[in-house]
Amino acid sequence: MFEQTFKNLDDILHKDAGCSSELDYTEQTSWMLFLKYLDDLEYQRSQEAEMMGDDYSYIIDKAHRWSEWAAPKDKDGNFDHNEAMTGSDLMEYVDGELFPYLKGFKRRAASPNTIDYKIGEIFGEIKNKIQSGYSLRDCLEKVDELRFQSQEEKHELSHLYETKIKNMGNAGRNGGEYYTPRPLIRAMIDVVHPKTGETIYDGAAGSAGFLCEAYDYLRQGGAAKKKLSTSDLTTLQESTFYAKEKKSLAYVIAIMNMILHGIEAPNVLHTNTLTESLKDIQPSHQHDVILANPPFGGKERKEVQQNFPIKTGETAFLFLQHFIKMLKPGGRAAIVIKNTFLSNTDNAAIALRKELLENCNLHTVLDCPAKTFLGAGVKTVVLFFTKGEATKNVWFYQLDPGRSLGKTNPLNDNDLKEFVTLQKAFGDSEKSWSLAVDNLDANTWDLSVKNPNVDDEVKLRAPSEIIEEIIALDKESEGILASIRGLL
């Protein structure tokens, strides 16, 4: 129903000089969607208050409500073109009046957990990049066609928004930064099986895919599929999901994504998680479940490294220390990390593996195939562990979907079915095996993925096969060059 509206929005933004990529399209769509959502929410609440004979106190003042400036209506409820600002008038209002007003909410809000504070944060970080007031007017009219009233509408919008995030991930240099494949997230949730009443945390939230999928999982009753009570639903809304995100664009998208999934005032903090010293994390800050795909390959400054007992510039290793500390005793985690963590020989990697094995039960390692993350050149594993008990055995599963993954052939839920099934009893198979920690080298704690069920011997290809492939590639190159010549 709304798919065409999203396509039309992208077409308008594509033609505007201020927007140059999928990242810009998603960012600009996000702030408009957010204000439209807010207007629908406020209208709904005012109607409910009226039915109860109560007064409703609006968050946004009348002059700056979506229904006043973005989509004014005439007395018959139709769009009023005579009242609607456009061109330079619209740009002056949005950039000079609306954004500064919305940014001011952060200063005026009672606490960071309020929707008022989130409004201030979003509009303090995001800028209107659309340069043409006529393009902006077209976008506003398209966004106004969307409705956030029913659960079905929100579900469809959340699905379309997820597709935008996926495209944005594909457009970026590092797709994994914005988009973790949803089948992988769902398998991680199936293994960790969070329960209503537990708190779930992601300190490197990105677009909040982990929290949105966990919300959907719990909303449907979790592993037991039990019907949720009204108090369960309130718990899910208000005191289950917690996140931190450093980057401005990802922060805005995380909030929008959680809102579209049905979480009205997401507990997402805009902060660099790693600037918090591990010594300052109190038991009251800890969580039952952690699901995350922290950024890897980054280099953190010396003063940030001082917050951690194991000093390293590798961002992912600092995040792993943070996550271990942020887990309650008995808490469960599933963390994506690059596979070199299992075998790196530097002092930090060895110390971190030792810490993980001695203070947590690293019960499962899922070895992911190449190109699981589009745009990311590294291979990854998922670490599943429980805090507060030493590891005796690690169960490995080598995920092999039997095909090369790519943009048109991504990971799907079926690819992970066997992993989820076998993991329940740590079953052995051609793709899975167990490793006793007692057998590890205590100098290196090397956990490399070495499948004992696969013959290590490299099978050399026949010379004739190699020659055939070279001939085929030469022909393919000739065809491409001929096509290019035809264009000149």
UniProtKB/TrEMBL annotation:
<comment type="similarity">
    <text>Belongs to the N(4)/N(6)-methyltransferase family.</text>
</comment>
<dbReference type="InterPro" id="IPR051537">
    <property type="entry name" value="DNA_Adenine_Mtase"/>
</dbReference>
<keyword id="KW-0949">S-adenosyl-L-methionine</keyword>
<dbReference type="GO" id="GO:0008170">
    <property type="term" value="F:N-methyltransferase activity"/>
</dbReference>
<protein>
    <recommendedName>
        <fullName>site-specific DNA-methyltransferase (adenine-specific)</fullName>
        <ecNumber>2.1.1.72</ecNumber>
    </recommendedName>
</protein>
<keyword id="KW-0489">Methyltransferase</keyword>
<dbReference type="GO" id="GO:0009307">
    <property type="term" value="P:DNA restriction-modification system"/>
</dbReference>
<dbReference type="InterPro" id="IPR029063">
    <property type="entry name" value="SAM-dependent_MTases_sf"/>
</dbReference>
<dbReference type="GO" id="GO:0032259">
    <property type="term" value="P:methylation"/>
</dbReference>
<dbReference type="InterPro" id="IPR003356">
    <property type="entry name" value="DNA_methylase_A-5"/>
</dbReference>
<dbReference type="Pfam" id="PF12161">
    <property type="entry name" value="HsdM_N"/>
</dbReference>
<dbReference type="InterPro" id="IPR022749">
    <property type="entry name" value="D12N6_MeTrfase_N"/>
</dbReference>
<dbReference type="GO" id="GO:0009007">
    <property type="term" value="F:site-specific DNA-methyltransferase (adenine-specific) activity"/>
</dbReference>
<dbReference type="GO" id="GO:0003677">
    <property type="term" value="F:DNA binding"/>
</dbReference>
<feature type="domain" description="N6 adenine-specific DNA methyltransferase N-terminal">
    <location>
        <begin position="6"/>
        <end position="80"/>
    </location>
</feature>
<dbReference type="Pfam" id="PF02384">
    <property type="entry name" value="N6_Mtase"/>
</dbReference>
<keyword id="KW-0680">Restriction system</keyword>
<keyword id="KW-0808">Transferase</keyword>
<feature type="domain" description="DNA methylase adenine-specific">
    <location>
        <begin position="153"/>
        <end position="452"/>
    </location>
</feature>
<dbReference type="InterPro" id="IPR038333">
    <property type="entry name" value="T1MK-like_N_sf"/>
</dbReference>
<dbReference type="InterPro" id="IPR002052">
    <property type="entry name" value="DNA_methylase_N6_adenine_CS"/>
</dbReference>
